Amino acid sequence: MKKWISALLALCLLALAACTNEQTAAPQKQSVANETTKEAKTEAPASASAEVPAKVKKLKVALIMQMSIGTFSTQYIEGVKKQVEAFGGTVQVYNSDNDLAKMASNLDAAVNAKVDGILIDHGRAEALKNGVDKAVKAGIPVVAFDNDLRIPGVTVIDQDDYSLAWKSLKTLGEDLNGKGNIAVVWVGGFAPMERRSVIIDAFYKRYPGIKEVARFGTASANTALDTQAQVEALLKKYPNKGDLDAIFATWDEFAKGAVKALEQAGRTDIKVYGIDLSNEDLQLMQKENSPWVATAAADPAEVGKVQTRILYQKAAGEATPDVFSVEPYLVEKETLPKESITMDKLSQYINGWGTSKAAYSPWMTKLEKEKK
Length: 372
Prior knowledge:
By secondary structure, the protein is α/β, with parallel strands linked by helices. It has twelve helices and twelve strands.
């Protein structure tokens, strides 16, 4: 009996050790996977009726933006406009030039103008909460993108920044075989950047052989040019092959500046891994010998369309989620064709890209036909 009990205890200890080792091997990867799964289940419910609610016809929509910099923002705005116009509505864009006080003022102006719906792009809750509260009390539906608002009745959507950062960083870690020196281009003060920073910290625990030798970044009217100058200075500090292996850019404007600096310096030994994607970015990635080898992104136009559809669902009186994540994808240079392509062709090479029907109620098809 004693021998049987001893053998049983030994088996239990071996099983426990195996579980512990498995959890230790990739704790952050598992955490990100769980987060992504939770977000993916948050589907925007659709009405069973195909009849167009009278409340959604000819809506006047306000898009309140913290800033409009780069081609990502351009394509995001294009997505919003296309979807609103397809539904027979109109949209006015308020650009706040990265000034939160101005953004709050623009929000108040939209509420006072008694618009039918408000879309918010970026911004911070401390600057916008009062204005959003006024909108909600006035019965104006609100949907925010990449924001930290937590107000009952307001839906906040994002690109699943945890998954975005992990997809790009995991590719970087695997390409470096878990060892090397990297620089990170990042800036605080933006909700998506704060979320991406969480995964950067986790990345170093998963890949302890990868060292961060520099972190910098600014958001300005000339972000790409500023980043190019910063990377040029960085290269002077690390002039030799092997000093610096990769640059992780948390925004495509950062990636564009980094790529141009590397190309001008002829540094083909340093690779760029980014977040976000646009037509201009695709051209940079597809160039021969481009250092930009991978980026994680959601279709910016699709983000704008999904955000708009959720707003229309709210206007129709349908139940909508408090949070919703648009599915991101990993785009690698090696999967792209040699000939130049644009974002509307990317679905031919990235399965699922730009084909989302999230937050699409049956009556929306009829509403679009009525517009035509």
